[in-house]
Amino acid sequence: MVPLVIALAVGLAISLYFNLFGGAKQAALPSSSSSSNTPRVELEADHKAARARAEAELQRKQKELDEQRNQLQEVKDQLKQAKRKVFEQKEGDKGSQDLAKARAEVERNASLQLEQTRLELAQVLTENQRLKAESEGGRGRRREPQAPAPVSAA
Predict the structure, then answer these.
(1) Which helix (H) or strand (E) holds 63?
(2) Are 19 and 11 in contact (CB under 8 A)?
(3) Where does the record place Basic and acidic residues bias (predicted)?
(4) What is the pTM of this model?
């Protein structure tokens, strides 16, 4: 019996809700017995106004989109210019590096030639000193035989 009373109470509450709140919605709507042209004209006017607002919004969005596309293109151009500058700078640096390498190579070759020339000069000086020593030694020997010869002749 208690479940039956609870079910009746719930049904009564639901019925009361629809009578109080559901009826207000139906009462707020205009009845079909009133003039049928007025709502249609109002609906058409609302529809035209909504369409005009939507078209204006669409045009505004199109303008914004075009502006954003232009900005995107400008940014792309700036990026291309920046990349070109970086490439040119790298190429310039590469030229400087190549020049530095070439200078280092020339210095290395010059150092090798200088060292080789020093060695050759040292050899020539040694040979020159040896030849001087031989020539002085040879003169001394030649003088010795010539000197004793006059002594022997005397």
Answers:
(1) helix 37-146
(2) no
(3) 41-76, 129-145
(4) 0.38
